[in-house]
Amino acid sequence: MALNGKVAVVTGGGQGLGKGFAECLLQNGAKVSLFDVDEKTGETTKATFEKEFGTDRVVFCACDVTLEEQFKDALQKTVEKFGGIDIVCNNAGIINEGNWEKTVAINLNGVIRGTYLALNHMKKENGGRGGVIINIASLAGLGPFPTCPVYTATKHGVVGFSRAIAMASAAAGYGVRINIICPNFVRTAMLGALTSEEQCGQFFQLQEINHKLLDSYGVLEVSDVVKAFESLVLDESQNGAAVSVGAEGFDYVKFPTAEDLKKKSNM
User: Fold this and answer.
1) CA-CA distance, 234 to 92, in Å (whole number)?
2) Element holding 177 (H helix, E strand)
């Protein structure tokens, strides 16, 4: 998928991974709509990108991914500004075990909402141009993160939902690929949640587990994850794929097939 002239949406695009994804897209010639609930950060990032890439290639839309109408309006503004949507990255996420309902609302419901609303604009049966959706999960979407069980649940949900909707999109002929990124710990503001009593909630007392996991897996830079993102966007052969990103780079996750599960059930 050549990115020059394509139109992309990145949720949580004002900072961290979202900012990194947006910069990558702009460097490849795309136009980018930054969605973020933090208006000050979003406007600052927009201004930074405008200086480097021009005022006609980036827009900021204040958007809380938990609010249906606000999300719809932001997508519509993007279409009106740029003429369509080709790429969507559902990146917005938090760690907050102390407010697990909010964590589910943003991390899982926000990704589902973003995927469905994006498909309304992108799928070919609606006159869309097709394209690709990248949903951001986590290493916690592939295995348990014991100090953050609700975060773990949401990221497992992102992986499962994305794989299923990718198959549905292919079967229905939407022309939209859906893929998933599962990074290890990344050096962003979210990393600070692991040392916050408010955000760790009742599991704050298990800090030693976090320390051991950080020592074991290390901390990635945003640029490490951006490489995986760029690959999944560009590679048109990948649909329903998940990549794990670690200290040694990124690799495709090998999930059990239906045949594998059938063999196990017959053992």
Assistant:
1) 21
2) strand 176-183
Residue 262 pLDDT: 72
Question: Domain locations in the chain?
Answer: 7-265
Q: For residue 187, which amino acid is it? A: R
Query: Parallel, antiparallel, or unpaired for β 87-90 and 7-11?
Result: parallel
**Amino acid 267: pLDDT:** 61
Q: Is 151 a catalytic residue?
A: yes
The token pair that represents 62 in the structure block = 């204040």
Catalytic residue, candidates 116, 151, 174, 252: 151
For residue 179, pLDDT over 80 is answered with yes
Q: For position 132, what pLDDT does the model report?
A: 98
pTM over 0.85: yes
Q: Does position 216 have pLDDT exceeding 80, yes or no? A: yes
Question: What is the CATH code for 7-265?
Answer: 3.40.50.720
- The answer to whether 22 and 46 have CB atoms below 8 angstroms apart is no
